[in-house]
Fold this protein.
Amino acid sequence: MYNKEYQRKYRLKHIQKLKEYHHNYFQSHKKQLQKKNRDWAIKNKEKVKLYMKKYFNNPKNKKKINTRVKKYSMKHPEIHRKAQKKWAKQNLQKTKGHSKAKTITLIKDTLCNLCKLNIAEHKHHPDYKQPLLVQFLCVDCHIKIHKELRKNARRK
């Protein structure tokens, strides 16, 4: 018991020293550690898949993920454009719906179709088969709708 308490106090007291030590160790053994991690990931594909799913579905990580994606797309615009085109081909109805929704102008000071309290700033397609049928929603209601849609999609 004494040993564990001593170790805890030591770590708290020398936190900066330990951080430097771990950083230097990682830098000097980077390739070996990366290879070890890669090998483990290959052997444990299901665990990695579950972890990634849990990580990407956690709302706390959304901001971090979005900033990484933006940085990556700024660094590699050709890859980003290619991915956008691929998405557009796979989601033709959504693409057509978005382009047709652009033609519909949002009237200034229109109230949200759901809560009737806030000013509508967003357009939402309940059904992409009817691209001109658009709901005008406030930001909060739009977020709520998409959260519900994601929950329903996960259940299926």
Q: What stands out?
A: Residues 139-155 form the longest helix (17 residues). Residues 42 and 48 are 9 Å apart (CA to CA).
